[in-house]
């Protein structure tokens, strides 16, 4: 019997030791903050210290926390950690710092990296595959946690050797090839993570709160981390987990073993109470559950459920507040729109009244113009009638002086001169004068109506053709032209004023410029320019000196004006030479004025 007990004790010790060896857990924690070539990061070193402390409290067999690693130091740390994972069941790597994605591959950046061009990542950074290789020997769980999705300053200054090479924002999506491997990103692939406003990032703070829960499966723990970060960042950052595990729960910290025999029933009752509370899911139920069970695994789960309910209540309250604010905004907008419509209606009434007053004023102006035009027409017709009457009187007087023996002829002449009901019989001079009067009425002629169809009258009728759109013959006045001009009720030709005058309705008014201004060639007032000072008299001294030099210079030899004649003919004496007479003795003498003595040309 004693031997059997010793055998049972031996087997129990063997199983306990084997279980301890099976549960060997190792972790490598790296935090890079003090980058040498880009601005320093605030939180990675703090986050690494916090997460490393969490692994140590969780009872990990080996936890190495390293800060601000250069490339050689990071390479050494990964190599040594790979050696420790060979006999481990669970291996975890946590990295906080800068990371970069190039062409779909992720790289972790040590603090001494320069990364001037995109190909430097192959030499100065560490591919994620190198980190995965360090956890590969672990037998049960391989976990890599990357808090490296920050906005990377290297990507902004890095030169591309290939224009088409893609440099992503954040990290790229990965699919682990080894089983039981999980890769947790602080932010979903293609997005960036936040350092937060406190000592630690929201992602690191949630990790140390959720992962150490005994017996909590890692998949559910990272789900809680996701919810916490979304809530704390206003849904701007969403953590994401890549990879897969088997069907069994894989907690970071194993659950406390349940006692055998009769003592197992309390945990079973707690589980049943938890499942019942989970079905109801109200705040009151979870509060009552926590009042009964204050600690333990299910108490932690209950606290998580309460936090979820609180988050949902906060969301609903925020949504209701936003709805009320939107309703208030719509109400105020409607009231403002109503006020705006009233202002618009008032403005429309005022504009209509202004338009009515303007129309009445315009009508008064047009009535005045029409009255003036009608008066000018009446004056023109009266003048034309007066001209005809004067002509008829002159004709009658001439007929009376010719004697009484031609009464019939006189009556015929008077009848011919009398105006017909529709077309008066007018002489060419009358037609000319009436046409000139009508041209003055419509503003196309400024000269007086003389009855002489001169060049001025022809230009006036041509001007009328231009502005009235007619094609009247301007070489002579005709009844056709007279009728066409009479048909125009008002001014046809624009008013043209002389220099120094401007148009004012149908009149020309004198332009008055203020003091210091005058009328220019464009008939506008311009400022009188200041008078320039008189040019100083040219200094005459250099000119006098030059004249003296010319006068004092020796005179140039001039031609003597003498003529040399010989058998070959006569020619002028060359410049600088003179004629000398020769006597019978062969002596030379100056040539006298007679020039009869034989002479020769002498040049000195």
UniProtKB/TrEMBL annotation:
<feature type="signal peptide">
    <location>
        <begin position="1"/>
        <end position="22"/>
    </location>
</feature>
<dbReference type="InterPro" id="IPR052039">
    <property type="entry name" value="Caspase-related_regulators"/>
</dbReference>
<keyword id="KW-0732">Signal</keyword>
<feature type="domain" description="Caspase family p20">
    <location>
        <begin position="23"/>
        <end position="153"/>
    </location>
</feature>
<feature type="compositionally biased region" description="Basic and acidic residues">
    <location>
        <begin position="526"/>
        <end position="550"/>
    </location>
</feature>
<dbReference type="InterPro" id="IPR011600">
    <property type="entry name" value="Pept_C14_caspase"/>
</dbReference>
<protein>
    <submittedName>
        <fullName>Putative caspase-like protein</fullName>
    </submittedName>
</protein>
<dbReference type="GO" id="GO:0006508">
    <property type="term" value="P:proteolysis"/>
</dbReference>
<feature type="region of interest" description="Disordered">
    <location>
        <begin position="526"/>
        <end position="560"/>
    </location>
</feature>
<dbReference type="InterPro" id="IPR001309">
    <property type="entry name" value="Pept_C14_p20"/>
</dbReference>
<dbReference type="Pfam" id="PF00656">
    <property type="entry name" value="Peptidase_C14"/>
</dbReference>
<dbReference type="GO" id="GO:0004197">
    <property type="term" value="F:cysteine-type endopeptidase activity"/>
</dbReference>
<keyword id="KW-0175">Coiled coil</keyword>
<dbReference type="InterPro" id="IPR029030">
    <property type="entry name" value="Caspase-like_dom_sf"/>
</dbReference>
<feature type="coiled-coil region">
    <location>
        <begin position="309"/>
        <end position="404"/>
    </location>
</feature>
